[in-house]
Specification:
Structural class: mainly alpha
Radius of gyration: 22 Å
Helix content: over 70%
Oligomer: single chain
Low-confidence stretches: 1-7
Mean pLDDT: 90
CATH topology of the largest domain: Growth Hormone, Chain: A
Length: about 450
């Protein structure tokens, strides 16, 4: 009898059935953000430029958002099927990426290896990312009804923290595996992440009391659900999400060079780890804080107002351009980097709970999935916008043997502050305080 009770206990434990599997899934797929650790090694090994290989990461983020948008209904109907799809696609994509890197090493400058990496890391892994990102979110909100923000923040923080956890491990593997370490690393990690995600897949379960409509029951379409509120309300949420990601990626993509500009090249690795911690902390902190508010949209107002303030101060003081040797400006630039990372993370973790407040829990996975299309488009525009500005403004200088463009990095902030102001206006005018949504 005691054995039955114990078995029933773990089967109905929200930490074992929701939180732990969510962390196993998100801590695995979140390593997509470790791309910068090994992108140069891939480029060198297969004989292509770093710019050519960078598209693999952009494709991964694009297909993350688009697979979430198009497969949201599968997640809604069957989280076991969706989490298994995520496990197989992510691990297979990583293993195949290793295979095409190996092929590229044997046949330098072969277009087959480059396209293979685009398909494996970009498309196959991207599908695993999108379905894996969505699968635990609704389940978490169902198990943690009273603290939905804390629950989703915990999982999404795992996605953000994955970079801080995995980066030193990957770097150690690259250094320790010798010649061909880059493709061996992908093969080893494919096995590790398959095990982690498969365990998460087995454990993930919705509460016994939750009833999903059966095939005989008519479930409203996504557009019918969205139209239960003014359409501008959803458009506003989508735009806020898109702009926050675009601005975050624009700054984060230049973070390493900005740190070198202000004279902290020796601490670039440490600062990258700290910024990843802020990213994860923002996901958990902002979403938990939102649980205490009557309107979760208040969190976005705070994120945009503080982002405008830090960005504006850095523009007025020309902090990136003049920061080297000036302690106050160095602190200001670091504060900008750390807060943008925190706000970027907080924007992610609050989207599903904000949507559930407005549109209920019935179709939240599908609506959240469609909203993640903003991430797909931001993944293609954020980095590229910043790169275009840096390449077409300012002046490249030699700084201790490194080519950099301080004015160009500073000019990126003019674009982001305009976008942050637009996001704040959208947040204030379009996204209304939610009424009590139908469950």
């Amino acid at each position: 009898m005691s054995n039955t009770n114990a078995q029933g206990g773990w089967r109905t434990n929200k930490w074992i059935r929701a939180a732990i599997p969510a962390l196993l899934l998100h801590c695995s797929i979140g390593t997509v953000y470790c791309w910068s650790i090994f992108s140069q090694e891939i480029a060198d090994y297969i004989g292509f430029s770093k710019g050519a290989t960078e598209w693999a990461f952009s494709f991964a983020i694009f297909f993350l958002g688009m697979s979430a948008a198009f497969l949201g209904n599968i997640v809604e109907k069957d989280i076991h099927k969706s989490s298994l799809i995520a496990t197989i696609c992510f691990a297979a994509g990583m293993a195949l990426t290793g295979c095409f890197i190996y092929y590229g090493g044997q046949h330098p400058k072969s277009i087959v290896s480059l396209i293979g990496i685009y398909v494996s890391y970009g498309f196959i892994m991207g599908v695993g990312l999108g379905t894996g990102y969505l699968s635990p979110v609704k389940t978490l909100m169902l198990w943690f009804q009273d603290r939905k923000g804390l629950a989703t923040g915990l999982a999404v923080a795992g996605f953000g923290a994955a970079k801080a956890i995995a980066s030193p491990i990957m770097q150690s593997m690259l250094n320790g595996l010798g010649d061909g370490g880059i493709y061996k690393m992908f093969w080893i990690l494919a096995c590790v992440y398959f095990v982690m995600m498969f365990v998460g897949h087995l454990l993930l379960k919705k509460p016994d009391g939750w009833h999903e409509p059966s095939g005989d029951e008519k479930k409203p379409s996504i557009m019918e659900v969205i139209k239960t509120r003014p359409l501008t309300n959803y458009i506003g949420i989508w735009l806020m999400f898109y702009i926050n990601i675009t601005c975050g990626l624009a700054l984060i993509s230049q973070e390493k060079m900005i740190v070198k500009c202000i004279g902290l090249a020796a601490f670039a690795g440490i600062i990258s780890t700290i910024s990843a911690i802020f990213n994860a902390g923002g996901r958990l902190g902002f979403s938990a804080w939102a649980d205490t508010m009557k309107d979760r949209n208040t969190i976005y107002k705070l994120i945009f107002i503080l982002s405008i303030a830090f960005t504006g101060l850095t523009i007025v003081t020309q902090g990136i351009r003049n920061g080297e040797g000036n302690v106050l400006l160095i602190v200001l630039v670091l504060a900008l980097i750390f807060f943008v990372n925190a706000g970027y993370g907080g924007g992610f973790s609050n989207v599903p709970t904000l949507l559930s407040d407005h549109y209920g829990m019935g179709s939240i996975s599908a609506i959240h999935g469609i909203t993640l299309s903003a991430w797909a488009f931001a993944g293609l525009t954020g980095n590229q916008m910043a790169t275009y500005i840096v390449n077409h403004s300012g002046e490249w200088i030699d700084h201790d043997g490194v080519k950099m463009n301080p004015v160009g990095y500073q000019n990126v902030l003019y674009a982001t502050i305009v976008l942050y102001i637009i996001a704040l206006v959208v947040c204030l005018l379009f996204v209304r305080k939610p009424e009590k949504a139908e469950k």
